[in-house]
UniProtKB/TrEMBL annotation:
<feature type="transmembrane region" description="Helical">
    <location>
        <begin position="47"/>
        <end position="66"/>
    </location>
</feature>
<keyword id="KW-0675">Receptor</keyword>
<feature type="transmembrane region" description="Helical">
    <location>
        <begin position="78"/>
        <end position="103"/>
    </location>
</feature>
<feature type="transmembrane region" description="Helical">
    <location>
        <begin position="123"/>
        <end position="143"/>
    </location>
</feature>
<keyword id="KW-0812">Transmembrane</keyword>
<keyword id="KW-0297">G-protein coupled receptor</keyword>
<dbReference type="InterPro" id="IPR000276">
    <property type="entry name" value="GPCR_Rhodpsn"/>
</dbReference>
<feature type="transmembrane region" description="Helical">
    <location>
        <begin position="279"/>
        <end position="301"/>
    </location>
</feature>
<comment type="function">
    <text>Receptor for MSH (alpha, beta and gamma) and ACTH. The activity of this receptor is mediated by G proteins which activate adenylate cyclase.</text>
</comment>
<dbReference type="InterPro" id="IPR017452">
    <property type="entry name" value="GPCR_Rhodpsn_7TM"/>
</dbReference>
<dbReference type="InterPro" id="IPR000761">
    <property type="entry name" value="MSH_rcpt"/>
</dbReference>
<protein>
    <recommendedName>
        <fullName>Melanocyte-stimulating hormone receptor</fullName>
    </recommendedName>
</protein>
<feature type="transmembrane region" description="Helical">
    <location>
        <begin position="164"/>
        <end position="184"/>
    </location>
</feature>
<dbReference type="GO" id="GO:0010468">
    <property type="term" value="P:regulation of gene expression"/>
</dbReference>
<comment type="similarity">
    <text>Belongs to the G-protein coupled receptor 1 family.</text>
</comment>
<keyword id="KW-1133">Transmembrane helix</keyword>
<dbReference type="GO" id="GO:0005886">
    <property type="term" value="C:plasma membrane"/>
</dbReference>
Length: 322
């Protein structure tokens, strides 16, 4: 899939060069002009590995905390747990890929081209599944908060545990199936169009829901101020909506360059400017990994119950470690 999304670094940096090599960089660090006059940020494999491992540990802790604390056994936290799994897919794929490349660099692993292609496809499926499922669960959480605010009295009858589990299963099935489909037909530009369309559609869907929610919150806040002359704390539902707004904003910042990369492949694949943009793709991969690293920090910062459980887990691990 490297010639479409350049999601994996295998085929470009150390192995047989295909058309996707146009979008990849090398392993050093720094910024120097290349042969066509483009400045290119070089990133070491060790940085990929370090960020991937930190992100992996963080997301595992979030999943364990949600499973451990029965107070967090609600549809919204189930969806957040799935979002952590989506982030973990990026972390795992990055760690595995980087370890293989480092072992190959040091002559400790002889990778056959056939094995490399299979591993590359698996990693691309994981990354595609991550982006599709992340967008889907962000939209699902937005819908969950919307129901909580506008249909508060009926929320528990609408969003039952069984229904939440069904939604989760449907999202994962759709994400994995579509990702495999994208890899199989990676040479078709329709794959890029589908990914970009899904990204934009999800953003519009979330924006509409959030605007409606925050408009209601603003009207409600003004009503309280007029009637009681004092401000109140935002409700739990609005606090959850604010948390998801932050998560969505971070997702857009971290994944935006990747989708811009896809759009430029469609509209100007041979342009000098676009080629310069393509050559910094490893920087976009770092941003994607940073998204997986930042999300758990947002969960912990915004949820006191989750933060408390994470502190207990870290304390227990420290005590047993000593």
């Amino acid at each position: 899939m490297t010639n479409i999304t350049a999601a994996s670094r295998f085929n470009c940096e150390k192995f047989s060069c295909v058309s996707g090599c146009l979008y990849c960089t090398t392993n050093s660090i720094g910024a120097e002009p290349n042969s066509i006059g483009c400045f290119q940020l070089w990133i070491p494999q060790e940085l990929f590995l370090s960020l991937g491992l930190i992100s992996l540990v963080e997301n595992i802790l979030v999943m364990v905390a949600i499973i451990k604390n029965r107070n967090l056994h609600s549809p919204m936290y189930y969806f957040i747990c799935c979002l952590a799994v989506s982030d973990m897919l990026v972390s795992v794929s990055n760690v595995v890929e980087t370890i293989v490349m480092l072992l190959h660099d040091h002559g400790l692993l002889d990778v056959q081209p056939g094995m490399l292609r299979h591993l590359d496809n698996v990693i691309d499926v994981m990354i595609c599944s991550s982006v599709v499922s992340s967008l889907s669960f962000l939209s699902t959480i937005a819908a969950d908060r919307y129901i909580t605010i506008f249909y508060a009295l009926r929320y528990h009858s609408i969003m039952t545990t069984q229904r939440a589990v069904g939604i989760i299963a449907a999202v994962w099935l759709a994400s994995i199936t579509s990702s495999i489909f994208f890899i199989v037909y990676h040479t078709d530009n329709a794959v890029i169009v589908c990914l970009v369309t899904f990204f934009c559609s999800s953003l519009v869907f979330n924006a509409v829901l959030y605007l409606h929610m925050f408009l209601l919150a603003h009207i409600h806040s003004r009503s309280i101020t007029v009637n009681f002359r004092k401000k109140r704390r935002p409700s739990t539902s609005m606090k959850g909506a604010i948390t998801l707004t932050i998560l969505l904003g971070v997702f857009i910042v971290c994944w935006g360059p990747f989708f811009l990369h896809l759009i430029l492949i469609l509209i100007c694949p041979t342009s000098h400017f676009c080629n310069c943009f393509f050559r910094n793709f490893n920087l976009f991969l770092i941003l994607i990994i940073c998204n997986s690293l930042i999300d758990p920090l947002i969960y912990a910062y915004r949820s006191q119950e989750l933060r408390k459980t994470l502190q207990e887990l870290l304390l227990c691990s420290w005590v047993f470690g000593v």
